[in-house]
Amino acid sequence: MKHSHVWTTRIAAMLVVIAVASAAHAQVYTKLYDLGTNPGDPLNPAWMGLFAQGRDGNLYSTTQGGGQKAFGAIFRLTPSGTMSVLYSFQNGTDGVFPNSGLTLGTDGSLYGTTPAGGNPGYGTIFKITTSGVFTVLHSFNGNTEGVQANAPPIQGPDGNFYGTTGNGGGQVTGTVYKMTPSGTLTVIYTFGGPLRYPNALVLGTDGNFYGTAGGGSANPYGAIFRITPAGKLTLLHSFNNDDGRAPLGAIIQASDGNFYGTTRGGGPDGLGVIYKITAGGTFTVIHEFHETDGFGYSPFSGLVQATDGKLYGTTIGPAHGLLYQVTTGGTYSVVHILNGADGQSPQVTPFPHTSGTFYGDTAAGGTGNIGCITCGVLYSLDMGLGPFVSIVNWMGKVGQTIEILGQGLTGTTKVSFNGTSASFKVVSDTYLTATLPVGAKTGFVKVTTPGGVRTSNRKFLVLPTILSFDPTSGPVGTSVTITGTGFIQAQGVGFGNTIPALFTIDSDSQITAVVPQGAKTGPVGVKTPGGTGISKDTFTVTP
């Protein structure tokens, strides 16, 4: 390290600043558990390691080390800090060294991947219930399906799961796959020379998936891409090293509609950046990491947006690493500097629990040493944010059952979707279901509990559905009655193309539109803030 005496002085100054800021803003970092304290503990949790909150209100993730046989583990962490091993990998058909972390499915199970193991040994996709029932859903074949699945699959609005493998055999250098809940897998895109080594996907509000790739002959420093559920890929940005290199962490879509992420390297000092990119591909670096300012560098983790609108992440440098926050405009500040005893080398994105507290882990540090030198810690970070509710399936159609996670839900008296009340059922103190009502609008969900009104941490998107239209053919100027659901916020209607038609919203289930000049034979579409509904049938434009 250059200029060690200057560096020590700056770190000391930073510690004083952070201590004062913590007291002023109720920033409380707490080490909850030293991994490696007991035999069979999860060990050294590292990238990607995403956390998920279960219906029971507990947190779940994976480690590629530890467990009963040292092949990795799935663990549970209660909000109060109690850790328990839910499953230990056996290095058999179940897989080995899971570093993906987990996601929650609408069936209440948690889904993840292993980069190796299984049969024939190229990794697996699995699910596990919160009671510990483990099921292998698919074993990768190592060739056309790829290998090295490093991220958990995510569930799309169609109920299927989508994910990536980071490499493959032959000319395959990664894949994007679709998998049914029962485990039937289809590769929808295969990466090759120009673009290689994809990482985690995120579902965008437009119904497409967004992700990053680590390299390729035409993109040696990595890239950002969009892919449709049908497998059409669009390259949005190629990193050039000056604006970043090696985008490892999962990207997110923030409340402003833009996507945000980090790169492990690149930038002026080669130590990484934080970037913003629009869905159309307009790219901006909003923060550059430097070695000598004490504000951290080399982020493995991605970002998460909290209810305060700020983005949170971690860096592995300097020294033992730190936690930070950054606004969408690029205003950056350090939240907590790790000292080794309370953790070291945080590589996993902090997770915002519905209590308002963040939870996470570090790859090293702490005092546990059974099975490793320093085995990492589990921690919480209280930024003084209040409780909220989280929507499991945050886009859906009228009549669909919507799952909501929270705290203190027993005694709930009202659930509303952007002001429209819904029928609901409280299943437990941490989980309820609601039926998306007629007239529901895209917007925030509010749940009235005995402890107060809890607002969702993101907007719910009401997807429009076209069920029928009448007549089914006619010339320009024909008045067409379109029936369906989710029409109350309709912004546009089209016939066979994007040429807009004049229309009237009759109700949430009916629109009257006039076939416009230039319309072509094809499906009918209705656009709303929640998305675009496309008819299965074709309207025929006659002379």
Plain-language structure description:
With 543 residues, this protein is mostly beta strands. Among the domains are: 72 residues, Immunoglobulin-like, CATH 2.60.40; 78 residues, Sandwich (Immunoglobulin-like). The protein has 1 helix and 48 strands. The strands form 13 sheets. A 4-stranded antiparallel beta sheet has the order 1-30-29-28, with no helix packed on it. Strands 3-4-6-7 form a 4-stranded antiparallel beta sheet, with no helix packed on it.
Question: Short summary of the structure?
Answer:
This protein has 543 residues and is mostly beta strands.
CATH evolutionary superfamily of the domain at 464-541: Immunoglobulins
- Largest beta sheet: strand ordering: 1-30-29-28
Based on the coordinates given, report the CATH architecture of the domain at 464-541: Sandwich
CATH topology of the domain at 464-541: Immunoglobulin-like
Supply the CATH class of the domain at 464-541.
Mainly Beta
**What overall geometry do the principal axes of the alpha carbons give?**
globular
Based on DSSP secondary structure assignment, what is the total number of beta strands? 48
Strand content: 35-45%
Total number of helical segments? 1
Helix content: under 10%
* Whole-angstrom Rg: 24 Å
**pLDDT < 50 runs, ≥5 residues:** 1-24
Main β-sheet: number of strands, strand sense, barrel status? 4 strands, antiparallel
**How far apart are the first and last residues' alpha carbons, in Å?**
77 Å
The secondary-structure class comes to mainly beta
